[in-house]
């Protein structure tokens, strides 16, 4: 399923057969090209989109949930997602564009972003996905007659991200949680929250996938691969190394650093100066998640008083 104008390129959407009609795992980006690709892909399998029974969304992001509403309108299918992401979708539908831009701008300013970047980064907002009809919790079986498709709550990339274990075939639909070559974005929004630890949750979720054994992985991007557990272990190690490097960088700075300054000093897939304002905003969210994980471990502290918020390594 193409994602026009996005470097990821495409989302992999899966159709799981059942005697009462197929259930889709994710639905793709809300765009005419993606809708055409969905029709064509299902048609090549002999599936009429009007027979789709339901859509299970691994998480609420637009490249996964975008077309779920259109599938529902066409086939009468239900839409299911984890209750934590369902709550976020309801929140997004309740925010006017002006409120959302104001929220983003305030968040960026508190992180130490340049005012010019704030204006550019808040210019666009994707349309929120369709609200789900059904909400899932960890361990729930999806309504898929004759099959066993179980939700595995794997928070981190989003609060309600789920993987889906097809128990009758020993396969794991991993969404964005475990990808074969890249790692998913894990950020905090707003950046300066101190009541959540999404990276800590993500690392715990990876450990849980590691305990499930060498299941065949069917991810939402890149390609299918064997042994989801081994890849989950690799991703955990990657983030532990990143946390160690970040702590060392902060220890070298005599003065507390803003989230924006920390993001600029971290290593990304391209130099900081080459990142667009939108990508810098995402990098800041990921930097914030790493800072929060270090703070939760007692390795750094946030300096109280004033804005933007700043962080400093704790002397050992």
TrEMBL record:
- Species source reads Nonomuraea cavernae
List the InterPro entries. Metallo-B-lactamas, RibonucZ/Hydroxyglut_hydro, Sec-metab_biosynth-thioest, WH-like_DNA-bd_sf
Query: Entry's SUPFAM superfamilies?
Result: Metallo-hydrolase/oxidoreductase (SSF56281)
Renumbered to this chain, region (Disordered) spans: 114-140
Identify the residues that the record assigns to the Metallo-beta-lactamase domain, covering every copy: 10-221
Q: What is this protein called?
A: MBL fold metallo-hydrolase
Q: What is an example of a Pfam family matching this protein?
A: Lactamase_B
